[in-house]
Each structure stands twice: as C-alpha cells, then as structure tokens.
Amino acid sequence: MFLDNRIEVYFQPIISIKEKKIFAFEALTRAFDENDNFISPLKLFNEAKKQNEISFLDNLVRQKAITKFKKYYEKDNNILLFLNFESSVIEEHMKNNLNFDFVKQVEELNIKQSNIVLEIKEDTIKDSILLEKFCQIHRELGFTIAIDDFGTGYSSFDRLAIVKPDIVKVDRSLIDNIDSNYINASILKSIVDICNKIGALTLAEGVERKEEILSCMKKHIDIYQGFYFEKAIEEIKEDDKEQIKQKINYIGSEYKKAVQSHIKIKKNLFKRMKHLTKDIVNIISVEEEFHFEKINSFIEVNPHIEAIYLIDFETGNQINDTVIKSISSGLYHASKHNDDHSLKEYFYITKEAKSKEFLSPKYISKASGSMCRTYAKVININSDSFIICFDIFAE
Fold first, then answer.
1. 334 and 307 in contact (C-beta within 8 Å)?
2. Which of residues 226 and 40 earns the better pLDDT score?
3. Residue 72's Cα: distance from chain center in Å?
4. For 25-72, what is each residue's pLDDT tens digit?
5. Which residue ranges make up each domain of the chain?
6. Residue 111 in contact with residue 66, Cβ under 8 Å?
7. In the chain, which ranges are continuous DSSP H helix?
C-alpha cells in the first residue's frame, strides 16, 4: 500500500522568457520511506506496477497536484499546471471507457480546464486509436494537451496529427549542448517549424546552461523548463520568483547582446564582401575579356572564401567553372560552366532585391561538403549584367 503521507508533489517552474514570468508548473512526484529516505519516482512507479496499484498511485499524485495548484491559481488564473499520465493508465481507462477522477476535481475546485495541461508520453502508448480517443475526449472537455519528451525514443511527427497537441515538450537529449551540436540544432529547428504550422507551442526541457537557452531562443523558442531556472521544489515562494526573474532578465540581456553582435557581424560581412566584389571585377575584367584563372590567387589570400563563380543575370546559367579552394570528390562536385542556377535563391532573390545582393542561411555545400553561406551580388562587366557568387565558410 502506498501511504498518502509518504508521497508529496513538488512543482518545477516553467518559464516564459518573453513574458518574463513563471508560465506554468509541472507536478513531480517525491516519495519517502519510513525513515524519510528519498525514493526515486521511477522506483516508486515500478513498484506500483508490480503491486497492480499503478492506477491508484497515478490518481493519488494527480489529486495532490491539483489540490496544491489551487492556491497558485487563485493568485494568477493564467498560470498552468502540467500533469503527467502513465501510458498504461490511459490505455486501461480508454479500453474500459472509464472516467478520470481529476476531471471532476478540477470542476469542483473551480479551476478552468484549459489551465490544466495533460502531459502525454506518446511514444510509450502503442495503441494510436486509444491515444487519439483520450486526446479528443479531454480536448472537448477544455483541457490543454501536451506531448512530453518529443524527439526521443519512438517519437514521430505523424503522431502530432493524432494528438494535435497545444504544447510540444522537446526532450533534454536534443537540448543538451545544442549550441555546439549542429545535427540536434537542425532537428530542433524542424520541430519548431512544424509546431508553428500546427499551432503548437514549443517548450525546451532540461535546460541547464545559458548557451543552450540562447541557442533555443535563436530558433524562436520562448518556453523553458530546467535546473538553470529552478529545480522542482516543495513550495514556490516570493524569493524563488525573484531569483527566477533575475535569471530571466540576465538571459534577456545576453540575448540582446548576441543579436546586436550578430547584426554587427552581418553588416561587417556585407561591407567586406562589397569590397571583395570590386576587387574581383577588377581582376577578371581586363580589356573586355574574362580572366578567371586569376581568381585562384585571390582565394588563396582570402581563407574565408571557399569558391567563386559567375552567373548570367538573365538566364541564371553559370559563366565559368567554379573556382574552388579544395578539390571536389565523391559525393560533392563543384558546379560547371553552363550549369543552371535559375531556381537557386541566391539567383532570383538577388535579382529582385532592392540592394541587388543576398546572403544565404548556412547550408552544406554540394561542392565540398563544408558548412557555408553564399553571398551574391549583381555586377556589371563590359556593359553586361552578372551575379557574382562567393561561397563563404560559415563560422
């Protein structure tokens, strides 16, 4: 039997940077034995499964969480409570058409249903029909739906269509060191993009370092949960709120500095590339003839430039073989004379841009496999218009 007085619920704050406040709490179980020794939640719930009391424990923890949440809700009726659900309990209730006790409890405490977030680990629920049924029933009742630990285990994008979540919590495994992990950063960007398209908020779980938060902010994530701001604690006091607010202000200040630095770097890059463009025009257009062979020495003295090529302004066809720093091999091949670039962004956007120049986002070069950006600018040589392209190693 799981004793009521040995099980407690702690709240971990979930933060909105833009709103500069605690956005929500997640209810987390804390249990202690007769000698007040801590029992891990994993051990606790595994023991409940062995004793066939998982439904009882799951319900008990939820009731405690909702009761505790009531006083916070009375002070701020915009704040949310995240409640976890054991997958086996969801499947059991849906199979047997059973109602959850928390629905009645929320109503009795006069808490708005949309302030309760039902947090589902969708990858642990094998039956998609039961999962969809659970979400549909409780969404119609007014509850908010969240997917937990997305991006790990068997999480898949097709389940987003089944759950139709209001919030997607990205797993810590993707957030860890995301500031230096390009692959995870790209996966996270894809998750954020699809969440935006389906109208779901993205929440970064397990943030522990400033750099992780700043990297996530660049991908337009506003909501965070993790030890950087606060661990799960028994009571959220005014001092805790003040410390969290200070951390939010610090992160906001650091992000502004990073944005300002990025703008400055970009301006300097445009300025430098305009000068280099003039140099290239002077090098290759002598006596009404192109001298592309002279570009090789130019690339050698400009180590940040990987490749240079010229495109016809009207057709988008390449004028010369790409002059590239490294020799292409295997999967990667530099573009050649007469290759068609008319569907490339750096061609058609440069043509239409008021400034007649364009800097692409970072991408993997098909010429070398290196991470690069393309700077393109309209130039005039011998009364004809061209677009010169520089592939620049991305920092």
1. yes
2. 226
3. 29
4. 999 998 887 777 888 878 888 877 788 888 888 888 999 999 999 999
5. 4-236, 266-393
6. yes
7. 41-50, 54-75, 87-95, 101-108, 128-140, 158-163, 172-175, 182-198, 210-218, 238-284, 295-300, 345-352
Lowest mean pLDDT among 2-16, 112-126, 284-298, 333-347: 284-298
DSSP SS3 for 189: helix
Bridge partners of 386, per DSSP, are 312, 379
**Which is more confident, 122 or 140?**
140
CA-closest candidate to residue 227, choices 207, 251, 211, 250: 207
One-letter identity of residue 117: V
Please, are residues 149 and 123 in contact by the beta-carbon 8 Å criterion? Answer: yes
DSSP 152-180: STT--THHHHHH--SEEEEPHHHHTTTTT
pTM summary value: 0.83
CB 269 within 8 A of CB 241: no
Which token pair is 96?
A: 């047997």
What's the rounded Cα separation, in Å, for the pair 227 and 232?
8
How many other C-beta atoms lie within 10 A of the C-beta of residue 169? 27
Bridge partners of 308?
A: 323, 390
Q: Is the pLDDT of residue 124 over 90?
A: no
What average pLDDT does the segment 317-331 reach?
A: 80
Taking the C-alpha atoms of residue 167 and residue 118, their distance in angstroms, rounded to an integer, is 10
Bridge partners for 391 per DSSP: 307, 374
Q: Which CATH superfamily is domain 266-393 in?
A: PAS domain (3.30.450.20)
Task: Decide if domain 4-236 falls under CATH 1.10.340.30.
Answer: no
For the stretch 278-311, pLDDT in tens is 888 888 776 556 777 778 888 888 888 999 999 9
